[in-house]
Amino acid sequence: MVTKRIWQYRDLLLVFAWREFVVRYRQSAIGIIWAIFQPLSMMVLFTFVFSWILDMKISDIPYPVFFYAGALPWTFFASSLNYAIPSLTNHYGLITKIYFPREILPLSYVTVALVDFLIASTCLLGLMILYRIHITWTALWFLPLFVILVIFTASVAVFLAGLNVYYRDVRAATGFLIQLWFFASPVMYSVDKVNIKLKLLLFLNPLTFIIENMRRCLLEGRDVVWWQFLAVSIIVVTWAVIVYRFFMHIERSFADVI
Amino acid sequence: MSSRGSLAVALRDAWKKYSLREIFHRSLREDIMRLIRGNGQPLEKDEFWALQGITLEVPKGECVGIYGPNGAGKSTILKLIASVTYPTKGSVEVFGRVAPLIEVGAGFHPDLTGRENIFVNGTIIGMSIKEIKEKLDDIIAFSELGRFIDTPVKKYSSGMYLKLGMAIAVHSGADVLLIDEILSVGDETFRNKCIDTIQGLLDQGKTIIMVSHDKSLLEQIAHRIVYIEDGQVKKEQANIEHIIGAYHAKQ
Question: CB-based burial of residue A26 (10 Å sphere; 0-12 exposed, 13-18 middle, 19+ buried)?
């Protein structure tokens, strides 16, 4: 049902995403390099902080690769939310005049973040070669982990964008929420070094599992525990289904409420 | 005119309730009360009926003009037909694809060129990318924009916006076109061209519903004019003079 609805409007999703991509990079000097710039600048900053200011041992992996591998999925998540949350209210003129499945709007911003992600991941590959990371078969886990990341990100984006139509507080809280979520996700640390009680707490955040395992399978040649993967997948998909039901329910009155 | 006779749009005793409240937020208590009482029953404080039992049947190939004072509920009718909002009571049925010709520039992105905006606006009103590519030359020709088609639309005048929007809408292949008071921006020549095109679309069996305060425009193209006031159909007539007479007698 979900996919059929979006499939019928796939051209609209594509055009919205293309529009956003063109508009975002057309009148900018460095264009699509922006896609790499964000995770790259996080990487440089963290490497600097943890090498010289704090002088802490975070991981055995060279810091630049370690931080970039975490910043990459994180940037996808954060940038999706940032753009998707105000997407419905920003298109007031369309919502009150024309029918189309409303989730197309937030999803188109997730699509743009996805393209950014693909561009920025070439840089990760470069770093892995540069730092002579031994790539093993476990790297294949990256793909299913990525699928879960996309489903999770899309459902959080659609949920918060819909809620923002009713309560503009969501928009106002976005920056704060993303900041908190950042510290709850293992971008500048690894859960490996954390004690078990705290670990369980951190794993309440699906991003913890996703980001941590993406890094392990790519850089450390470690396998993902399959039952853990299964459990997280079930939780994420269930959440996504609930969000979609909820969205379909509130979508009908968007034009009256917005 | 072969397809005339079967319905394109049917509103049956459609009621629409709106809230005046700034924040549209029903509390849980209200939701429970609504469950007990049933929806669409007595008005709460700050609520009003924008439509009060509108019944309107539009056969295929007909052009219906909707006329009436501001705030009568004309645009709400178009919103119901476009499935943007839903009736509180009653039913709305539409047979075929609807393309709302929305006001000047909605859905256009200022930083994109006219050509690029054809893709954005076209897909919004339900065309596929393939369809747009096929009709691109016709759309550009109709818009009369010439070399301005590759200029960002933020540099367009409102007349140019309208020409582009109209060009996309008439090529959309939709069965029902909704036109909400927009033709007034274009120049005389373009207006006449639009009227000709609308006649052509009607001959193809397309249905057009238009809201306008422009008497002469309605007289020229509408087969039937519906006079709306206070959310109700007050008069239906083929002749505008009768409608106008009724309107002015009240004032």
Answer: exposed
Contact A190, A212 (CB under 8 A): yes
Name the phi and psi angles at A13, rounded to 5.
-60, -45
pTM of the model: 0.87
DSSP structural state of residue B153:
G
pLDDT in tens, B8-34: 999 999 888 887 765 555 555 666 666
Q: How far apart are CA B181 and CA B185, in angstroms?
A: 9
Angle ∠(B175,B179,B180) on CA atoms, nearest 5: 150
d(Cα B100, Cα B104) in Å, to the nearest integer? Answer: 12
Tell me the per-residue pLDDT of B129-177, one tens digit each, with 9 for 90 and over. 999 999 999 999 998 898 999 999 989 887 888 888 888 888 888 899 8
Cα–Cα–Cα angle for B156, B161, B166, rounded to 5 degrees: 155
Contact present, B46 and B20 (Cβ < 8 Å): yes
A93:B107 CB<8 A: yes
Task: Tell me whether A16 touches chain B (CB under 8 Å).
Answer: yes
Instruction: Check B106 against A97: CB less than 8 A apart.
Output: yes
Give the ipTM: 0.81
CB distance from A99 to chain B under 8 Å?
yes
Question: Can you tell me the distance from the alpha carbon of A84 to that of B142, in angstroms, rounded to the nearest whole number?
Answer: 35
Q: Is B15 on the interface with A (CB under 8 A)?
A: no
Chain B residues near residue A19 by CB distance under 8 angstroms: 109, 112, 116, 120
CATH number of B7-250: 2.60.40.10, 2.30.30.40, 3.40.50.300, 3.40.50.920?
A: 3.40.50.300
B47 touches chain A (CB under 8 A): no
Q: What are the structural domain ranges in chain A?
A: 2-257
